[in-house]
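Sequence design from tokenized structure. All designs in this work follow the same two-part layout: the structure record, then the generated sequence. An example of the structure record is given first.
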């Protein structure tokens, strides 16, 4: 009778559902260090298991924290609160002076509010926005200034002259900064009409001269205090 019951038992085991067989096979394949088996007093209760959570030793914790410190990323940022002692040049276009003069006044007021001394500021006037770039490069290459602020106003007219001047002034200021190695800040307004320009020269849209002065302070601080 014993020999007859054995095949029946093997047959019943082979007819277990595939998912259940696969589940038991995966349990036995888990590493012993990750299984915590608890036996029950009754054979009808299935064995319970739990995956153990690894704990770090004090040495391992110390090694991980020191790695995080050595791998920290440095963030270099210019500051507008360390403007004392920085030197600035301001290149201003006379053309559209009704716009550029309020922009200059906004910039000078901002410099004063952020502790930049009057003797550390030089203002250079040029005929128009087209001539700003070459003068900015000359001032930046002189070694006397930590940043050059470029102020102008180009207003669209009936011809394509606007596009030529606007593009040339932008590329000229960019080239001046790249060639001199000194931040040259683009503060040239490019507007469709006079109303837009007035709104950005102290009107309802603020004063862009003041905003670009803040940019000049931050960039000068970045170059002097962080990148040298």
């Amino acid at each position: 009778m014993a020999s007859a019951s054995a095949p029946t038992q093997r047959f019943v085991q082979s007819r277990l559902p595939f998912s259940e067989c696969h589940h038991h096979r995966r349990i036995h394949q888990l590493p012993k260090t990750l299984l915590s088996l608890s036996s029950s007093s009754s054979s009808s209760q299935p064995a319970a298991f739990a995956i153990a959570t690894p704990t770090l030793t004090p040495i391992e914790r110390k090694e991980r924290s020191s790695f995080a410190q050595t791998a920290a990323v440095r963030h270099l940022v210019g500051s507008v609160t360390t403007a004392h002692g920085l030197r600035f040049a301001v290149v201003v276009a006379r053309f559209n002076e009704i716009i550029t003069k309020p922009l200059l006044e906004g910039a000078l007021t901002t410099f004063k509010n952020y502790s930049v001394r009057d003797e550390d500021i030089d203002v250079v006037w040029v005929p128009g926005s087209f001539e700003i770039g070459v003068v900015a490069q000359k001032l930046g290459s002189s070694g006397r200034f930590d940043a050059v602020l470029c102020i102008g106003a180009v207003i669209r007219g009936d011809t394509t002259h606007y596009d030529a001047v606007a593009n040339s002034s932008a590329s000229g200021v960019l080239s001046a900064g790249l060639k001199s190695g000194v931040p040259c800040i683009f503060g040239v307004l490019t507007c469709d009409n006079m109303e837009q320009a007035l709104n950005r020269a102290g009107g309802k849209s603020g004063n862009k001269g003041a905003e670009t002065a803040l940019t000049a302070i931050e960039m000068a601080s970045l170059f002097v205090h962080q990148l040298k």
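Strands lie at 88-93, 121-126, 147-155, 184-191, 201-203, 206-207. We note this feature because it recurs in several other targets discussed in the main text.
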